[in-house]
Design brief:
With 201 residues, this protein is an all-alpha fold. The protein is built from seven helices and no strands.
Length: 201
């Protein structure tokens, strides 16, 4: 079992991972319309060789974050059906995000030699990343709502986590901004929870 301070640091690391993802996207910039634009950008520029290592590092940090999230959920109470489901969903989410990252790496690398393969890989990458982040927010909703109604941990923060998770997961089917905003807002709430764990540890 991890210590409270270790769990706290790992929960905070989610924000670090998001910053790396954000910086990598800023470096990549607007590559034009659709997958074709991304392929053309990767074929014409070496910037992807900077972008992808940042995303890989972010993905590695997300492994630590997910481990911390699972440990935090386990520390809330004895195993509970919904809490267990939330933990399992977060593991699936991490796998999907990594599938997306690795597929994107392969797509960028093959962009100048095999555009068909690059197209398929980048398409897989976008789907894997989108579903992975969606599943993370579903996990946050399940855990946050369950912890709130069972009055575990800090009910206010857990309630907010559940709300942001729900809005990010369900709202994305209405307008894409919910997907963009929901994930970092959930990470901020969990980072605050992490600070609490460090202070009480």
């Amino acid at each position: 079992m991890l210590s409270s301070k270790s769990i706290g640091v790992m929960l905070i690391s989610g924000i670090v991972a998001f910053i790396l993802f954000f910086v990598s996207q800023f470096i990549q910039g607007d590559t034009g319309e659709g997958i074709e634009g991304a392929i053309a950008w990767a074929a014409e520029s070496d910037d992807w060789q900077t972008v992808m290592p940042l995303r890989m590092i972010g993905g590695i940090i997300m492994i630590a974050f997910t481990a911390g999230f699972i440990s935090w959920v386990s520390s809330l109470d004895e195993p509970d059906g919904f809490l267990q489901i939330g933990k399992l969903i977060s593991i699936l989410s991490l796998i999907l995000v990594w599938v997306g990252t690795l597929a994107q790496f392969g797509g960028f690398e093959s962009s100048s030699e095999n555009t068909d393969a690059a197209y398929a890989l980048i398409k897989l990458s976008r789907m894997g990343t989108w579903v992975g982040i969606q599943m993370f927010m579903l996990s946050f909703f399940v855990v946050g709502a369950t912890a709130y109604f069972r009055k575990l941990g800090t009910p206010l923060l857990n309630g907010i986590l559940g709300i942001f998770g729900f809005l990010g997961f369900a709202g994305t089917f209405v307008i894409w901004i919910f997907w963009v905003a929901g994930f970092p807002l959930c990470l901020i709430v969990l980072a605050i929870t992490g600070v609490q764990k460090i202070r009480t540890g």
